[in-house]
Design goal:
Strands 2-1-3-4-5 form a 5-stranded parallel β-sheet, sandwiched between helices. Strand 3, helix 3 and strand 4 form a beta-alpha-beta unit. 37% of the residues lie in helices and 22% in strands. It is of the alpha/beta class and 137 residues long. The protein is globular. The protein has a domain of 88 residues.
Amino acid sequence: MEKQKTLLNVTGLGGYTDFTALYEQYGFKVINAKTLRNALTLIKQHAPGINIIVAEFVYAPTYGSQLSNFESLFAAAQNFAPQAHFIALTHRGDLAHLEKVRTRNPRCSVLLFPLSAMEMDDCLKNIVESDFASGAG
């Protein structure tokens, strides 16, 4: 019996299309988090079963020693769900900031706003074909 694939969807600021139906088409059980704190808790609770984490990259140098919300997400995933593949949703203007952080997790795809269902579908297809075909996910 195949193990259930799980996707953590961190909506954060939101304001973009809800792709839950698309995630489910790929066989993912979808867990939603509205805040970074909630996402970190869910990563721990569902460890190590989270395969994909979809989150909006929020650049905010006011986080103190961190540039964004992704440092915390990457750290939690590294500790509790090291196989998780990230899909970072970001604005073109924040791409350079994301690239600085992204070096810490090479398993991170990037989609730019405005998002389209076709782009998300292509991204999921690539992840599923590479991670799950090889048994990595």
